[in-house]
# Entry
Amino acid sequence: MEEKSLRITGTDKTFFNKITKTLTKMLIPTKIGINGMLISIKRNSLLKAFEAYQNNDENYDQKETEKKYDTAYEAYLESLDKYVMDSIYKKVKNDTASEFEKEALSKYYEVTSLKENEFVEYKHRKQKYLLELDNDGVQLSGKEKLIERYNQFYVSKMDTLYKGILKNYSIKLADTTNTYEASKEWIYTKIFYTLEDYIQNILSLKIRIGDDKVAKDVIKEYENYETFTVGKLDTKDNIEKNVLLLSISRKLFTHSLPLIVAIQCYEKLLKDARILVQDTKIATKREKAYGMLMNLFEDYHVKLLSTKVYWENAKEREEFKAFWNQYKEVCKLKESNFIEYVRQKEILFIKNDMKKIREGNTKTDYSRLITYYKRKLIDYGAMKELKNAYTSEGKYTKKLKEVA
# Structure
């Protein structure tokens, strides 16, 4: 069926095919009506089972209510799957589908294409797809009581599905046998895409329906995220948006995106930000990118590394302790001399990053960034520029000396 759907080209010329097509068109509305009625029945059964399961009534056996809920959910998904294959597929095949239906079928095949090679992701994404498909219909129905009941089920189940998807990505990212940078880049992209998809469609719904489980600081960060949904975003904007997505994820997906994975995601963003600073030619834009990089350093060290309890590498742990002690000393200046506090903090971040770049085994050429960093240190008086010295080849080079 999937192979045939890819070869749909339009009208058939033979008399027999024309008759078949006409008969199928006549039967489709009846088929849609039957499927719609079946979905409505299964949905109502599901909502009753979900509410009984959520109520946790002492008069009911919790295991039994959970089993009934799972059974009702499975039957509901089957009815939605049948709707796609019996109704939408036939309408697309016979060229009577709307743009929405064509897109729905396209997304369906996109999801099912994951089945052979990415079964775990397929399992979660197919459920997500079918729920989204029916949710669109429920929201457009205008039935307030139904919408209210369905929203409670929808956000609960979607939370579970998104957590499963992100956990699957976390396992892949933490897999040390995967040494291919290209595949890891793709996982990072999927993580950020999934986080944004959740925030746009589920977190926004939770806030709209007044879900009391959504913390105030999450709502505030969501409002900050909304500023990135207007207008065209450049590279700097996208990095800042992804930093915000990660920050929200630390509150919503602590177990699905554990600390070790969050650190890898931050390091990916740090790499992108470094490259942006050194590749930007326009001075004003470069300074803005540099300011973003400094903020990213602070988020990375304060929000993440400072909360890390277990360190696999003892040397890295001691190095961070030394850095953290210096950072706390710098922070003491914040109240008394804010300008000096900002200057000293930048110097600390720059020196720490220069050290990591020099010691790190990276394929990226950061030579222009190092030059930029050195110029910043000279401007801040943290490095002296000595007289030019000639080499044996008759060329001269600038000598720099770090100020103690």
